[in-house]
Specification:
38% of the residues lie in helices and 21% in strands. It is α+β, with helices and mostly antiparallel strands. It has three domains: 6-239, HUPs (Rossmann fold, 3-Layer(aba) Sandwich); 280-347, no CATH class; 357-479, Phenylalanyl-tRNA Synthetase, Chain B, domain 3. The strands form six sheets. A six-stranded mixed beta sheet has the order 3-2-1-4-6-5, sandwiched between helices. A five-stranded antiparallel beta sheet has the order 7-10-13-12-11. A five-stranded antiparallel beta sheet has the order 14-18-21-22-23, with no helix packed on it. A hairpin with a 2-residue loop joins strand 15 and strand 16. The longest helix is centred in the middle third of the chain and has 30 residues, at 223-252. The termini are far apart. 30% of the residues are buried.
Amino acid sequence: MEKNSPTISTFVNQVRHFAHHHQLFTPRGKYIIALSGGADSVSLLLVLKYLESELGITLEAAHCNFHLRGDESLRDEQFCQQLCRRLHVPLHLVHFDTHAYADLHHVSIEMAARDLRYAYFEQLRRDIHAADICVAHHRDDSVETLLLNLVRGTGLRGLRGIQPRNAHIIRPLLSHSRQQIEQYLDALGESYVTDSTNLHNDVKRNKIRLNVIPLLRELNPSVSQSIFETSLRVTEALKIFDDAIQHAIADVTIPPRECTSGGALVSSAPTKQLGTTPSHPLIISVPRLKQQPSPEYTLHEILSPRGFTSAQIEQIYTSLDTNPTGKIITSCSHELAFDRSTLILQPQTPTPLVRPMHIPETGTYVLSDNMKLKVETEECGDSYEPSRTADCASLDASDIKFPLTLRHIQPGDRFVPFGMTGTKLVSDYLTDRKKNIFEKRAQLVLTDAQQRILWLVGERTDNRFRITPHTQQALCLTLQ
């Protein structure tokens, strides 16, 4: 490399500064260069090879042959082999049947190639114990990404463009333009291959590159640099925003098992939610949410990572004033319920959570992977004390008829709560207990052969089967 060439030295210094500023490399680390043979990846390999000793790193390259362009694909592979052989850089080669993958997974060819490429890079990184994978995205790629996000519709993060680091993917050339890359290669006298598909405006990104950006340059010849610098300012502003939004999210969320009444928080004693799968619902206080500087964006930051679309979030936000208690909106992974002055968010769970189980006699019954019901009888004496824990019930066995049934509650279920004389709808009882719709849906009851509710599991027994001084035998029910 000619150290006295201004073009070369400027290029190298810019890479050095960018890598140092973003802490992209660690001394004694091994790094994989994603090498396609195009100008971008060739310049990346060359500049990092030059800086290899200075940075204290070792380099290996990886090339993917997707078999999409006939002889061109073979030409690219051979070019990469020759280049790496000349530079004494180990090269890893992999071949993909991209069309077959796309058909199997019902994705576009572009998406199939991307999935295959990055999955291979990550597996190779682990296999050879490399620190990171270097890809050759440059400033123009970042500008195109920002414009594509803007066209599709984006939040603030979409205005950052491409980032210098994403997990184990790093981009040392991100501050360079495509023109600078080509000038660097020209100054070195290095060749590269050209992907002919980049010359046709048949995909959205190429339309941005070949049609939109040239029009914008008519308004501002430095438009790419201006957009890139704006994306950097957005990135810095997002650091402040992210800190503020995390404080807002912490302010509007309530620890599980707290509930609201007229907007005031009231702590309730924790009870074991029997019959549910293990989950920790997120509870959002609507009054607190409305006090935020931007309630809708705060809601978006909570719900978007949980699979809710922008349209769903807008629907939820506009429904806050009407408070449709009991309404459930579902994303691909979560459910959100309106519950008085709160929104309750939890991962989707299969329903029914526990299949109805018939219990013909005493014994131990397996309800699920983590739940058993033990049914046994005990003789009662003068000093007998019935259980008072949530997961155990003691009933007078004299009037209980087998088989018993353990099931979820049903509309119209009624029982006589312990200590009362009249019947009450189970749904009304649970409402009085401030149970939300998910807790109601998961609630179990145990009935006898006459369909009488013996136990609202984990909550309350039926007063008709209470232990009295005249009880001779108790039926003991224990959930383990």
